[in-house]
Amino acid sequence: MLDKPDRELHLVIDRMALEAEIDALALEHEGERDALRLAVVALLKTTLREGRERIKAWFHEDRLGTVCAQRLSWLEDELIRATYAYVTRYVYTTHNPTSGERMAIIAVGGYGRGTLAPGSDIDLLFLLPAKQTAWGESVTEAILYVLWDLGQKVGHATRSIDDCLRLARTDMTIRTTLLEARPILGDMSLAGDLAARFDKEIVQSTAAEFVAAKLAERDERIVKTGNSRYRVEPNVKEGKGGLRDLNTLYWIAKYVYRVRDAAALVDAGLFTRREYRQFVLAEDFLWATRCAIHFLAGRPDDRLTFDLQQDIATLLGYADRGGLRGVERFMKHYFLVAKDVGDLTAIVCAALEERQQKPRARLDRFIAPFRRAQRQALTGTKDFVIDTGRLNVADDKAFARDPVNLIRLFHLADLHSLALHPVAMRLVTQSLKLITAALRDNTEANRLFLEILTSRNAPETVLRRMNEAGVLGRFIPDFGKVVAMMQFNMYHRYTVDEHLLRSVGELADIDRNVGSNEHPLVNEIMPTIQNRTALYVATFLHDIAKGRPEDHSIAGARIARRLGPRLGLTPAETDTVSWLVEQHLVMSMTAQSRDLSDRKTIETFAGTVQTLERLKLLLILTVADIRAVGPGVWNGWKGQLLRSLFWETELVLAGGHSNADRRASVRHSQEELRAALTDWSPEEIEAYVGRHYPPYWLKVDLPTRLRHARFIRSVTARGESLGTEVDTDAFRGVTELTVLAPDHPRLLSVIAGACAAAGANIVDAQINTTTDGLALDTIFVSREFPEDADELRRAGRIAQGMEQALSGAIRLPEAVAKRGAGKTRHRAFQVAPDVVVDNEWSHRHTVVEVSGLDRPGLLYDLTTAISQLNLNIASAHIATFGEKAVDVFYVTDLTGAKITSPVRQHSIRDNLLAVFGKKEGKGK
């Protein structure tokens, strides 16, 4: 706890003066018990508010996290003392207290540690003697009512010492709270008896049990919060690498080593002085972050969300520097601290192993109990041994004798599928200075590293251990620059280094034929590639230049050209790696934002890849990259788009797609339909075939053509020209809504508005026009429900909304605005809007690519603006990357011609850019 002189804490609260004011109020309201209580509560409420404001102001000045939490705890102590004085002097007075009229008020839990966040609960134990009178219960109740009237959130228990010990024996949570019990006021002998008996009767004989329970509890908590310390919206308190992890380490160390404060862990031999300083710095940073969250949010919330990250970075003094924004520098610091917490966890676990305080059967995956007798030699090396089933160093000079051993350790772990002993890992972190330029240029070290990276065992796991130990960033300095680096956007869910390691893991899964039901094509072609090593290296390097001022793909390709020879790649392999890194985004962007039925799209992409081998490599890398972005980013729809692009490009590379081929394909598609419509008359079939233009027959598969034919026939049979049909596709994760309506320029805008009003997220739109003036549009929206029955009901409501909008039964602007009201998720981000108008990307259409900050109703606003420009939309392709929308429209003028006039092109840009400049809320 803080000493009172800290920052003149009497400026926050002077308890003696406060109690004097209470005494004065008692004189003023003598005999008016209720009036006195109201006056005291008002005084304490003002004191609490002013004290918090002063502590908040100090925090803004000095940014000291632990000190801020201690000041808030000290303020709470003083308020409780003043409240106790008021209650015992003027509510339940005892002039000659008996032995049963004693009480100790004890802070427990987080409050017991002497730290409080601005929005933390207050956990109190009212400790009473075994033989008690009604006085204790009455005083407790009166104090709690005052604290509740102050707006405090109080967790409390009223118990005797025997009650506490009895419950602690069976309830690990209560045992933990008592471990940090801190007397605030009252009978100190009572509190002392509890501490002594708790230590003797509970702690002394149950260390192993406590350790097992706390680590199991930590496992469960981490799974709930995402199972990674590198999530870009971490939970500062409960997440992996957060405050609760530090608390757990301290609880365990305090229980096992029987110390009263963290500093004593140095003398106990658990931490070195450097490691203890690491503990203190991590705790202070995490407390600063948590306090900042509570102050800025105005409520108890421990999630470091995007909308708070920028403001917290500014509050804590992080400025733009070195190509990184201030918020990215702050988050990089956060993830480095989370990594430090992980290192400290390993140190504590290693020490527990030495003391044999961890039950092997329960926690073997962490660390097995240490027994020197279980060490055995590892064949082929004198520097490493197998120690209780884990790979360990033979002695503490292993790395000094031969620095290559810093790489060989991980190579042997992968080769023999051995877990790494924490003693070896701790020695690794203490030997990082041995990773010099000489080691980085060492042929054997690079050979071992390349074998780790391309291993058929578990390369992701081993590379992650290398990264956590600090080896990977030092051995590959360019990788070290992206360690703990986050990109301030909603698309990437992990730091750059974590994303790269997960990408390697996804590639290894493909290599082992895992997940073939989710991405069947890449599993099929993986065994056929000739450049497996190049593919692994490219996957490891594809984002390695993130955070630099220049395009990361180009900079990354340059790094690959430099690094390839060092790793022992041939010139051909190095060239392939460099090309893959430079082009690693092109396949994804083409598949998601271009018309794959447009011949120019395929020809352009084929010209980029040039060979079938590069096409295969790029597809596999693209799938691994997308799947490693984060949960829910990959879906069957993206897989289908990539497969379509692959197959179409493969045909072009094989020499297909001539005009003659296309005419033959149209005839073949028409004949397929004729053969399938066995219940139609020849006249009906010919009339129907004549309703579609050639592009329709080229881009629509037979099952869809059959469905369209029967759908149009049923609408026509009803004598109508407006109809809708819905279908689900669980594999692709989308729902199809097919609309038949009289064609007009605003049709897609109305459909987009109806989807926006229903909260449906459009991912693609296929637009077909019939020769008799109807539009046959298929809209693909993201699936929301896992069960088809639920999804079909939802799709039916969307379709009904479309029909109502097309018939004029509902006003779309109001419906879209109502749906988008209050949606502020993206306001923390800035995306500069951009509009590109290009006539080279398609033979028949002008392509308009629009990118900017996504929001509800954006597609509706864009399509409305396009229709107002008297443009026909032939196809639309909608992609969203977190907060960034990239919408591409293939358009013509009303005569079906491209937009070639510079004046009209300029007008298109201005009008679409104006959509992003609308006042907030308008057009939503």
Automatic annotation (TrEMBL):
Cofactor needs: Mg(2+)
Give the coiled coil ranges: none
EC annotation? 2.7.7.59, 3.1.4.-
Alphabetized PROSITE patterns for the sequence: ACT, HD
Tell me the superkingdom of the source. Answer: Bacteria
Q: Which family does it belong to?
A: Belongs to the GlnD family.
Protein name in UniProt:
Bifunctional uridylyltransferase/uridylyl-removing enzyme
Gene source species? Labrys monachus
Gene symbol of the encoding locus: glnD
